[in-house]
Design brief:
This protein is mainly β. It is built from 1 helix and 9 strands; from the N terminus they run H-E-E-E-E-E-E-E-E-E. It has a 4-stranded antiparallel β-sheet with strand order 1-8-3-6, with no helix packed on it. Strands 5-4-7 form a 3-stranded antiparallel β-sheet, with no helix packed on it. It has a two-stranded antiparallel ribbon with strand order 2-9. The chain is globular and about 60 Å long.
Length: 136
Amino acid sequence: MKKICLAGLLLLLATPLQAEQPPVVVTPVMRTDVTASGQPIILPQKDAEIVVANYEIAPGASLPIHKHPFPRYAYVLAGTLEVTNTETGRSETYRTGAFIIEAVGQWHKGANIGTDPVKLLVIDMIEHGQNNVVKQ
């Protein structure tokens, strides 16, 4: 046993050291406890399910007026998206790198107001088997 351990130690010492790995860098994107319209974030109460999807919205394209019965989060991978809450009349513009906490239960619409496609990573937190988009 001593010969095996000693041989392993010698092999380890004879192996050239690799360059140190760079440290992990964490850059906060957002921290909040409210939606884009100021509502407190309330998670599904039973049988929670996470649904993740990629969306691509062509330049000039619009999403229909809709609402979400459960929390929906979106990270803007590319492009410029304008979201208008049709209940409050408030519009917000989101660009590459923005994180969106969508309004829950409020009618709103989105539009690509840029010249490039809007690419979103969308995360829904729903009750198992439910849909998170209700069209007007």
